[in-house]
Amino acid sequence: MIIITITIIIIIIIIITITIIIIIMIIITTIITITITIITIITIIIIIITITIIIIIITIIIIKSKVNIQPLLLASCLFFAVFGSVRGANGTVPLVLWHGMGDSCCNPLSMGAVKKMVEIKIPGIYVLSLEIGKTVVEDTENGFFMNVNDQVSLVCDTLARDPQLKEGYNAMGFSQGGQFLRAVAQRCPSPPMRNLISIGGQHQGVYGLPNCPGQSSHICDWIRKMLNSGAYTGLVQNHLVQAQYWHDPLNEELYRNHSLFLADINQERVLNESYKKNLQALRSFVMVKFLRDSMVEPIDSEWFGFYKPGQAKETETLQESVLYKEDRLGLQALDKAGKLVFLSSDGDHLQFTDAWFNANILPYLH
């Protein structure tokens, strides 16, 4: 009887400890993202008191009635197994990052800084910043020259082999990393992606390359020449990343027939039901548009809009597009279910403040 009582007490202590940790994390997150109200504090206190009273009552009943507690112990084990699998050992959801053109996984001024910021905001979180290649230099080069479909396959394999991600993860892609991670969501449902956050991604592609990041201007000058001279030729499509999401509204048929990447994931050629099903499994698909973007043309692509067919001046929203109306990708269904989120930042490409990130993005990382 003493052993049983001690076992029950240990279980109770563990449950109370986990509960307190969760509540503390909620309070910390709330402090970061919004102002704590008196109602929030009172609610948390009531939850703590209620849980404590219930646990004490159950313990007294069990001890006095000498009930067989094996079912209780089994239930407790199942509870911890399920809890651990859903939220991870420390109650956080892993995060996968994919950088944009001209960047790398670990640049301390960009992706490295984002990774560190998230780790500070969400203590204990596992953050995987994808490196496409064996070195940072190779990672950067692959953002220009490695076949996108091969990159997506490599990432799918990396995620599938990572034990920390087996129960699910959130994904956040920057610039072209946004549409690349959407391809991962559509093609590789295991491990499951929960929330997809696209920061300035170009989901209907680009028709123009007006600016370049960092020190890559000479590369971008060459890219412009390649795109203008023959974006849909086999050589350019296979070896130039930006050509694989180049969307020429003046030559829609050429785009549909020869785009190796974007036309496929946007269901422009054939309808792949698994793409639609897998994308609809997301809890949220968050798209961020930068209102003063000087790199992406048209910026509407960051919200899945694009030029109206046959010209390159007037744009249409996602909701006005054939892709949405025919619901070939499941975006209309996602929208009606409240899973599509359209956010904006009043800045240039990928320019946002910590305060904006905390208020708008951080809630989707829990």
UniProtKB/TrEMBL annotation:
Source superkingdom: Eukaryota
Transmembrane parts of this sequence: 7-32, 38-63
Example of a GO cellular component annotation carried by this entry: lysosome
Coiled coil: none
GO BP terms: receptor-mediated endocytosis
Enzyme nomenclature, EC number: 3.1.2.2, 3.1.2.22
GO molecular function, one term: palmitoyl-(protein) hydrolase activity
Catalytic activity, as annotated: hexadecanoyl-CoA + H2O = hexadecanoate + CoA + H(+); S-hexadecanoyl-L-cysteinyl-[protein] + H2O = L-cysteinyl-[protein] + hexadecanoate + H(+); S-hexadecanoyl-N-acetylcysteine methyl ester + H2O = N-acetylcysteine methyl ester + hexadecanoate + H(+); S-hexadecanoyl-N-acetylcysteamine + H2O = N-acetylcysteamine + hexadecanoate + H(+)
Gene3D superfamilies: alpha/beta hydrolase
EC top class named in words: hydrolase
Keywords, alphabetical: Disulfide bond, Endoplasmic reticulum, Glycoprotein, Golgi apparatus, Hydrolase, Lysosome, Membrane, Secreted, Signal, Transmembrane, Transmembrane helix
Subcellular location: Endoplasmic reticulum; Golgi apparatus; Lysosome; Secreted
Record-stated family: Belongs to the palmitoyl-protein thioesterase family.
PANTHER family in alphabetical order: PALMITOYL-PROTEIN THIOESTERASE 1 (PTHR11247:SF8), PALMITOYL-PROTEIN THIOESTERASE/DOLICHYLDIPHOSPHATASE 1 (PTHR11247)
Protein's recorded name: Palmitoyl-protein thioesterase 1
Organism: Acipenser oxyrinchus oxyrinchus
